[in-house]
Amino acid sequence: MAQRSYEPVPARDVAFLGLGVMGYPMAGHLAAAGHRVTVYNRTAAKATQWAAEHGGKSAPTPAAAVRGAEFVFACVGNDDDLRSVTLGDGGAFQGMARGAIFVDHTTASAMVARELAADADRRGIGFLDAPVSGGNVGATKGALTVMCGGDAEAFAAAKPIAMAFAKAMTLLGPSGSGQLAKMVNQIAIAGLVQGLSEAIAFGERSGLDMRAVLEVIGKGAAQSWQMDNRGPTMLDDKFDFGFAVDWMRKDLGIALEEARRNGARLPVTALVDQFYADLQAAGGNRADTSSLIRRLR
């Protein structure tokens, strides 16, 4: 885990549910910031490993992990996983005390965020939907961007704790707003990566020195995070890192489903989603999203 400095915050009892490529380092930053962290993971060996590495505790169920925690953070796979760790047998909501706050960093639907927020409210629990952007690199560096929906009071209480792994955390509206903002983020990225892929493939076919081209256009209006960070690796045909195609398809599926509900038109997003399906069919499930360029070479 990358070293970073932390703002001084009183140590709290916290739990973290889900120790995947995002959750593992996020929980680590909470421990490094001085909080007393108990973790749960579906594969128990990973939770045991985390506790040995970071000096926290592991628990056999979400309910056991959250017992006594003032703040509970989660980062799991999808809507069903989220319902399982909150409402299932041994779920977190069964073990949380009134007044505790659940912060969900899963990229999930706005619908499940509103559903769980309502259930939490009936139990006297705070709930924030708080998906993140920045990928596993941002999680490792403790530099994630967090988009939140929910109650302002719960947000104000949770933000100082979450800033252990974030560089920015913003409340965007009522429950579901964080998830909707993450959909906006993924829609923007999908079109941007496809455009960058087409630009690089065109330049290569034209015989240009694309490193020199990216260097010069990266100082103008075409500049983007994707160009700066993924342009060079696209030129090197390297994709064994970053945000996987499988994850992007999951996220775009959530956005397209929401668009069917709200009437938004997403023609480019729908097309790029199918391009990612092509990559999956070719076995590129775990390659970085920038592997879109492989379709054009």
What features would you describe in this structure?
The protein has helices spanning 23-32, 44-54, 62-66, 79-87, 92-95, 110-122, 135-141, 152-162, 177-205, 210-217, 225-235, 245-262, 267-281, and strands spanning 13-17, 36-40, 57-58, 71-74, 101-104, 126-129, 132-133, 144-150, 166-171. By secondary structure, the chain is an alpha/beta fold. The protein folds into 2 domains: 13-174, NAD(P)-binding Rossmann-like Domain (Rossmann fold), CATH 3.40.50.720; 180-296, N-(1-d-carboxylethyl)-l-norvaline Dehydrogenase, domain 2 (Orthogonal Bundle), CATH 1.10.1040.10. Helix 1 links the parallel strand 1 and strand 2 (36-40). Helix 1 packs parallel to helix 7 (135-141), helix 9 (177-205) packs across helix 13 and helix 12 runs antiparallel to helix 13 (267-281). The protein starts with 12 loop residues before the first strand and ends in a 16-residue tail after the last helix. The mean pLDDT is 97.
Radius of gyration: 20 Å
Number of domains: 2
What general form does the structure show?
globular
The ordered H/E elements are EHEHEHEHHEHEEHEHEHHHHH
* CATH third-level topology of the largest domain: Rossmann fold
Give the structure's gist in a few sentences.
By secondary structure, the protein is α/β, with parallel strands linked by helices. The protein has helices spanning 23-32, 44-54, 62-66, 79-87, 92-95, 110-122, 135-141, 152-162, 177-205, 210-217, 225-235, 245-262, 267-281, and strands spanning 13-17, 36-40, 57-58, 71-74, 101-104, 126-129, 132-133, 144-150, 166-171.
